[in-house]
Amino acid sequence: MTERLPSFPFPTEAALAPPAEWAEFRAKCPVAKVTLASGDEATLITRYADVKSVLSDPRFTRPTPADKAARVADTESGGVFNSEMAGVIPQHGEAHLKWRRMLGKWFTAKRMNALRPRMEAMAVQLIDEMVAKGEPADLKASLAFPLPVWVICDMLGVPDTDRERFAHWSDVMLSMTRYTQAEFDVAQAEFGRYMGGHIAAKRAEPGEDILSALITDTDVDGERWSDALLVATGIGLLIAGHETTANMIAKMVAMLLEDRSRWEALLADRSLIRTAVEESLRMDANAGIGMSRYLTEDFEVGGTTLPAGTTAMCSMAAANRDESAFEAAADMALDRSPNPHLAFGAGAHACLGQPLARTELQVVLGVLLDKLPTLELAVEAADLRKVEGLAVGGLRELPVRW
């Protein structure tokens, strides 16, 4: 009888606490075989140095539909990361670098600083609307979700009034266990038609937005992007630009309110906002499944040689609590610096939008401290409920009062 492999991701009792398995795996089996939601076998990497090594190696990238990689989701296709849409975006070599260069200029720190005043104004408006409705309130629905949706929609040139539609499509496409293959196919097709319609409209009347620029600009070789690449990129930006940041805003505020001394420290010293955001990213125990890499050749990591064809699941959240990389790694230190966490990944595939995410998190925290200094959780931290069954982690809601 074969030994049953551990299921990954690991279940947790509390929404803000890490699973006990992280520390156990880092200490005893940092390179371990696990079973994913699909039933497929993968290799879980949990130590900081090992995760960084795999993610930074230019030979390996996200699995593509052509790879016989482990599927993250229990649908036949394996979900968005194994989907045809994901396969349209180049994952390797010069083609991938060209794709990132075309997009990267829209996510520079300079551009984010230029957007900051509008982000702050929107955050103020959303908080005022939340306060007007009275307490308790759901900070995720009132602020954490609509703010990043508004920002990425504004950058892409699509109406944020459609947010309920693409929020549903995003959830379906990021699902590991919640939806069927048929539901995934419908969501992907509807999202594709939606984005294709916007691209056709912008081709006729370009605006001052990312999609218009991608349609009209040429890359370094003088080539224009195909409609398929434009659609896949637009969908990817819309999903990544709101789903992960909306969840992170809620988790960050929850972590800071879980221990009132953290909130009081920020009220006393606003210079801690930047480092508090970074520490919240490092401490995120509900970050989702992490990043997968398909090994195209044998690779040694953590003293173990993984054969070509292995799907490596890199748990950046587990790595971010590695005592060998961070002093007092289990403690939240709002002034921790430097803080080389891996929340945004590492290497050529590190999150393209991290300047945007950082700016949004800093803006939200600053405005909340100014507008609602008495903010507190309306339930016990232990009673916060996790989003289940998605490749990204989050809270279902964040009940607060002030």
Report Rg. Answer: 21 Å
What is the domain total for the residues? 1
The amount of helix comes to 40-55%
Biggest sheet statistics: 4 strands, mixed
The best one-word shape is globular
Low-confidence regions: none
Output the keywords.
402 residues; alpha+beta; four-stranded mixed beta sheet; three-stranded antiparallel beta sheet
What does the model show?
The protein is of the alpha+beta class. It has one domain (20-401): Orthogonal Bundle (Cytochrome p450). It is built from 15 helices and nine strands. It has helices at residues 20-28, 48-56, 84-88, 93-104, 109-133, 139-144, 146-156, 163-173, 181-204, 210-216, 227-258, 260-268, 273-283, 316-319, 354-371, and strands at residues 31-35, 41-45, 137-138, 291-294, 299-301, 304-306, 311-314, 376-377, 399-401. The strands form three sheets. Strands 1-2-7-4 form a four-stranded mixed beta sheet, with helices on one face.
In terms of topology, how is this protein built?
Blueprint: H1 20-28, E1 31-35, E2 41-45, H2 48-56, H3 84-88, H4 93-104, H5 109-133, E3 137-138, H6 139-144, H7 146-156, H8 163-173, H9 181-204, H10 210-216, H11 227-258, H12 260-268, H13 273-283, E4 291-294, E5 299-301, E6 304-306, E7 311-314, H14 316-319, H15 354-371, E8 376-377, E9 399-401
Parallel strand pairs: 2-7
Antiparallel strand pairs: 1-2, 3-9, 4-7, 5-6, 8-9
Helix pairs in contact: 5-7, 5-15, 7-11, 8-9, 9-11, 11-15, 13-15
